[in-house]
Task: inverse folding
């Protein structure tokens, strides 16, 4: 099998998908290669889901510039892609004099970065905005929000696909050759040829860069663990609450974030690990999260815990170096039609589309771009039953009986939504793929009620044998055989 | 808004509690009632409980879960009670307006009385915060039971079980009978949380070891489970350093507790007991919201289904009185010391009642005393009392000395 493209994008995370979508505005043939079974399997899905304002990043950096651009442009992007988000605002709380000094610096940095809506507020105002959050004073950021990282990543991919980009899953890139102006990308399954290669490989971006002849970068995986809390206390936290950031590690500290769906995330920690895919959670860090998180949010009771997870940052600085490293967005010197996107950690989610626009500019330096006349920027989510009024729900169910059948009771997800997730346009057919698309399995019972139904529907709709049902990655089977 | 259907009684849940309540109401002359059930068939969790041991108390014979449920389903059918399956209740108000949805659309019911009979759900890995990686192959016991018994799907070959709850032990036997190797059951407490008969019939009979004072401290495997690290704990449930031992397995089954499922109750503003996680009820099983009643595992987790049926039948009589406006006020509050909770939590003092409770710790030769106004007004001696077993004590109305609160305490006999 050999395929020829103008553009090959390696990695279907939020950045790879944003690049695919921006490039699909032009007359290019595009292939996106992803080694996992789905988009958003790694860093793009495993984060706090915050739409950052851009005050945390060094003035003049790409991080700062692209984050601010991403934040200001998000209303339009979210409208085009139907991504749930909310400008909740955010508070960074302080307790003592040195905290106040740091918050003043943070505010000054934010203003220098062009972030509007920053102010210092006192305890009384904190208690007004977020009565359950502790702190003596805080910096308030009006532009910060929360977004659905799954819907953003999937929405970008679906829209890119709708505009002609082809997606290839379970394709791990093993080698890249360059000759006569053509890249040959060899995966575990096939060979792809293209005129351009864009490396958006996240945690593996250093390895892909090396295949492109660039040995200058090393990714240091830095894991962050989280708790997820039950929606029953969602009213306790109307907006993200952060501590004063740690200057030494560059981390944002253990914070509390309301998810767009009403859960609360506690975390993340920051621990350098050896393996890029070690998504474990540890007792030591869990204990630390509760201790640290309780300082600003004293409601971290065991009865509210519904899940733990971890995400991994693709850091360009090692534990011993520490400090700041900007996003790498550059064309390879050796082979001028390859672009490396390396070290895209926070605020990569917010900055993903601006990063993609940078990629377009780098390509434009080499060739003239032809707009596609029929580019369609709009992507719609399947209608979400639980977001509707009872009247609207009645209409939905009257039109389509599957909208009347509840599959996931905790999140009130209907059969129609699960079926839409199973028949997603990217052709993903894992259990996690269904979960990411429609939120079934994400509630407090963690699939105790709906997982048997979802497995049933998946097997039936996709004609899978029980042994073929995967949770997410290769080898993550759920069933060994039929019962005798 | 579409039409609202008026019903005298709406029962939410067609499991053992809902069915028993419906039958008892109908037998006592209430015809304007409906049972709403989200599954394709009535019977609730009994449908997947294909083992025997049900019915000894209620019917004086032993039968399987589906057989036990069928007794009630047959009665429901014979009596012509209206039961709607494949229908999920998604909203409930204190005014007793029920919103239900099915493939036929959304239906609203306005009830005079509501019976909450939604049962319970299982505690999960996330609720316990078990550290380690996140592979496939970690299941709760009830989910494994549903896969094997209802869907004919086998979930693994080499099994470790955490928690000595009844369903976990029953699944240890079930997995063994299906050819899997069940390596051990680990329990963090110094005593089993399931019934003694299940330890005998499900573990000992199959040479499956039960290790008390042990818990899982790490889960291994990136795609599918490859094993668990098991550690010993001290009397304060603290892990003993260096006691970790690796057990290779592809399946971990969690049987670590059940939580009454009260999301709808909360929507209606029903006050919950932080200990039972179920509603606070009076002797008629009426919750803090007038006209809303609760029984079965949604109220408190039962050891035997027989008591669920009996409780729901008692509840039906409370509903009958409520509909006739003849319920006495229940002002006497009951508190507990050394026991986990009592049902009911409030009584009228005007009739003889049975108090149901569980002890917190296993007890030998203990005395359960009911005290009021500083005096012991009733007591019962137990040679042995286990947290796994729901116990009861009679409280004749004549023994009460006032309308002041009463207290149930555990003492050495």
Result:
């Amino acid at each position: 099998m050999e395929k020829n493209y103008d553009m090959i994008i390696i990695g279907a995370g939020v950045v790879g998908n944003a690049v695919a979508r921006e490039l699909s505005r032009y007359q290019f043939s595009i292939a996106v290669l992803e080694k996992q079974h789905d988009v958003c399997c790694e860093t793009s899905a495993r984060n706090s889901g915050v739409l950052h304002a851009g005050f945390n990043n060094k003035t003049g950096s790409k991080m700062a510039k692209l984050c601010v651009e991403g934040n200001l442009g998000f209303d339009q992007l979210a409208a085009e892609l139907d991504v749930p988000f909310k400008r909740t605002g955010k508070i960074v709380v302080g307790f003592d004099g040195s905290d106040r000094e740091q918050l003043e610096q943070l505010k000054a940095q934010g203003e220098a970065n062009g972030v509007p809506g920053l102010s210092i507020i006192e305890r009384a105002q904190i208690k007004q905005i977020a009565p359950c959050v502790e702190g003596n004073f805080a910096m308030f950021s009006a532009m910060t929000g929360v977004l659905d990282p799954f819907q953003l990543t999937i929405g970008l991919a679906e829209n890119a696909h709708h505009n002609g980009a082809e997606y290839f899953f379970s394709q791990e890139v093993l080698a890249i050759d360059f000759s006569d102006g053509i890249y040959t990308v060899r995966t575990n399954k096939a060979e792809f040829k293209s005129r351009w290669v864009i490396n958006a490989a996240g945690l593996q971006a250093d390895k892909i860069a090396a295949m492109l002849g660039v040995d200058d970068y090393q990714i240091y995986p830095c894991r962050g663990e989280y708790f997820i809390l039950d929606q029953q206390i969602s009213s306790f936290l109307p907006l993200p609450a952060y501590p004063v950031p740690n200057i030494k590690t560059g981390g944002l500290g253990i914070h509390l974030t309301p998810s767009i769906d009403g859960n609360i995330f506690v975390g993340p920690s920051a621990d350098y690990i050896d393996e890029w895919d070690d998504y474990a959670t540890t007792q030591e860090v869990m204990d630390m999260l509760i201790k640290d998180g309780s300082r600003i949010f004293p409601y971290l009771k065991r009865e509210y815990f519904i899940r733990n997870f971890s995400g991994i940052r693709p850091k360009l600085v090692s534990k011993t170096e520490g400090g700041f490293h900007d996003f790498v967005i550059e064309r390879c010197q050796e082979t001028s039609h390859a672009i490396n996107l390396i070290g895209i950690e926070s605020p990569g989610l917010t900055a993903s589309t601006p990063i993609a626009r940078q990629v377009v500019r780098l390509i434009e330096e080499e060739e003239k771009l032809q707009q596609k006349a029929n580019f369609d920027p709009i992507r719609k989510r399947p209608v979400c039953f639980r977001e509707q009024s009872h009247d609207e729900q009645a209409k939905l169910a009257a039109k389509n009986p599957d909208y009347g059948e509840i599959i996931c009771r905790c999140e009130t997800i209907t059969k129609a939504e699960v079926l839409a997730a199973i028949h997603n346009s990217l052709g993903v057919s894992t259990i996690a793929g269904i979960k990411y698309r429609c939120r079934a399995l994400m509630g407090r019972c963690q699939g105790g009620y709906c997982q048997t139904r979802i497995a049933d529907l998946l097997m039936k709709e996709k004609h899978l044998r029980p042994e073929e049902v995967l949770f997410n990655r290769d080898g993550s089977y759920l069933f060994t055989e039929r019962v005798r | 808004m579409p039409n609202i259907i008026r019903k005298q009684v709406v029962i939410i849940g067609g499991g053992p509690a809902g069915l028993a309540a419906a039958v008892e109401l109908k037998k006592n002359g209430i015809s304007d009632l409906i049972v709403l059930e989200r599954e394709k068939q009535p019977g609730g969790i009994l449908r997947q409980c294909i083992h025997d041991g049900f019915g000894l108390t209620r019917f004086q014979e032993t039968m399987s879960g589906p057989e036990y449920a069928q007794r009630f389903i047959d009665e429901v059918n014979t009596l012509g009670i209206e039961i709607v399956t494949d229908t999920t209740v998604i909203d409930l108000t204190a005014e007793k307006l029920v919103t239900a949805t099915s493939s036929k659309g959304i239906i609203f019911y306005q009830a005079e009385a509501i019976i909450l009979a939604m049962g319970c759900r299982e505690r999960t890995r996330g609720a316990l915060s078990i550290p380690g990686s996140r592979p496939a192959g970690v299941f709760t016991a009830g989910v494994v039971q549903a896969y094997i018994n209802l869907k004919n799907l086998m979930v693994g070959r080499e099994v470790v079980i955490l928690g000595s709850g009844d369903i976990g032990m029953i699944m240890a036997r079930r997995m063994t009978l299906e050819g899997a190797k069940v390596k051990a059951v680990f329990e963090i407490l110094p005593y089993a949380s399931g019934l003694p008969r299940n330890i005998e019939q499900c573990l000992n009979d199959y040479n499956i070891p039960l290790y008390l004072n042990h818990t899982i401290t790490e889960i291994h495997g990136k795609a599918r489970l490859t094993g668990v690290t098991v550690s010993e704990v001290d009397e304060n449930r603290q892990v003993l350093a260096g006691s970790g031992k690796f057990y290779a397995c592809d399946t971990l089954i969690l049987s670590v507790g059940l939580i009454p499922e009260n999301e709808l109750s909360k929507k209606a503003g029903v006050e919950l007991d932080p200990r039972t996680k179920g509603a606070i009820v009076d002797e008629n099983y009426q919750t803090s919201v007038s006209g809303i009643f609760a029984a079965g595992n949604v109220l408190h987790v039962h050891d035997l289904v027989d008591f669920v049926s009996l409780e729901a039948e008692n509840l039906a009589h409370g509903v009958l009185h409520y509909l006739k406006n003849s319920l006495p006020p229940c002002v006497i509050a009951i508190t507990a010391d050394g026991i986990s909770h009592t049902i009911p939590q409030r009584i009228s003092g005007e009739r003889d009642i049975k108090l149901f409770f569980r002890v917190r710790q296993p007890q030998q030769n203990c005395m359960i005393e009911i005290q009021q106004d500083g005096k012991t007004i009733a007591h019962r001696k137990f040679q042995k009392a286990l947290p796994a077993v729901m116990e009861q004590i009679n409280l004749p109305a004549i023994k009460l000395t006032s309308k002041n609160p009463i207290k149930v305490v555990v003492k050495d006999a």
The radius of gyration of chain B is 22 Å. Chain B touches chain A through 52 residues (CB under 8 Å).
